[in-house]
Amino acid sequence: KAGVTQTPRYLIKTRGQQVTLSCSPISGHRSVSWYQQTPGQGLQFLFEYFSETQRNKGNFPGRFSGRQFSNSRSEMNVSTLELGDSALYLCASSLEGQGTDTQYFGPGTRLTVL
Amino acid sequence: GEDVEQSLFLSVREGDSSVINCTYTDSSSTYLYWYKQEPGAGLQLLTYIFSNMDMKQDQRLTVLLNKKDKHLSLRIADTQTGDSAIYFCAERRSSNTGKLIFGQGTTLQVKP
Fold first, then answer.
1. Between A55, A90, A107, which is nearest B97 by CB?
2. Residue B10 in contact with partner chain A when CB distance is under 8 A
3. A31 and B99: CB-CB below 8 Å?
4. Is A7 left (phi over 0), alpha (psi -120 to 50) or beta?
5. Which strand ranges, in their side-by-side order, compose the sheet holding A5-7?
6. For B47, which residue in chain A has the nearest alpha carbon?
7. CA–CA separation, A55 and B96 (whole Å)
8. Collapsing DSSP states into helix, strand and coil, what is residue B61?
């Protein structure tokens, strides 16, 4: 079974631009979560989607948004990029994000904001 | 608070056992996980333990959970140079969400 895939793997943007990152979960997984990883703040939860609905949201500004499609693929968008948005963005999928489900992570998208 | 605490660095000799410690704050945590991250890579799930268990063994890995002290540990037996990585513990506080709260990670250095 293929693992979680994320595209693109690397991205360079400038301040003020917007960016869209994509995540394809493991086949059959319906829950997708996004995390931001930075050296200073570590791994922080952004949001979780299940059945095309946002189920949980972390403490990030409204510039960070996401969505999930009917095939469970998910995208996250960051508008008006700031230097501090430079990070590794990780996506994780699980069957339903409940009970005994475990989360499997993709390789991440490395975003650099100049 | 939301904090999950880990020591930042551990250095061991190849062949020794490594013990990585983690403390969490929420006594209602349902599941606790250990992930491994190698340079430039995502997170690899190593093992997990449910809150109704005290210990779980999986080949070279042993997880111990002390619910009274909210303390979790990961023991790696016969540590190899390939085990050098950052290890994260994470807790899931509700059985109805996929949200994980991560510690800041412990860098394990294995010297030959």
1. A55
2. no
3. no
4. beta
5. A5-7, A19-24, A74-78, A64-68
6. A102
7. 9
8. strand
**Smallest Cβ distance to B42: which of A44, A99, A106?**
A106
What pLDDT shows up at residue B2?
60
Q: Which long-range contacts (CB under 8 A, 24 or more apart) does B56-59 make?
A: none
Check pLDDT > 50 for residue B107.
yes
Place of tokens 């059985």: B95
Q: Is the pLDDT of residue B85 over 90?
A: yes
Strands (E), chain A: 5-7, 10-13, 19-24, 31-38, 42-50, 53-57, 64-68, 74-78, 87-94, 104-105, 109-113
Look at B43 and A92 and tell me if their CB atoms are within 8 Å. Answer: yes
Which pLDDT value is given to residue B1?
44
What local confidence, expressed as pLDDT, does residue B14 receive?
A: 97
Percent of chain A, pLDDT > 90?
87
As a whole number of angstroms, the distance between CA A7 and CA A55 comes to 23
Per-residue model confidence (pLDDT) at position B95: 67
Tokens of B82: 């390939």
CA geometry: angle at A45 spanning A40 and A51, to 5°? 160
Count of other CB atoms within 10 angstroms of residue B31: 20
Of B43, B104, B105, Cβ closest to residue A105: B43
Which pLDDT value is given to residue B94?
75
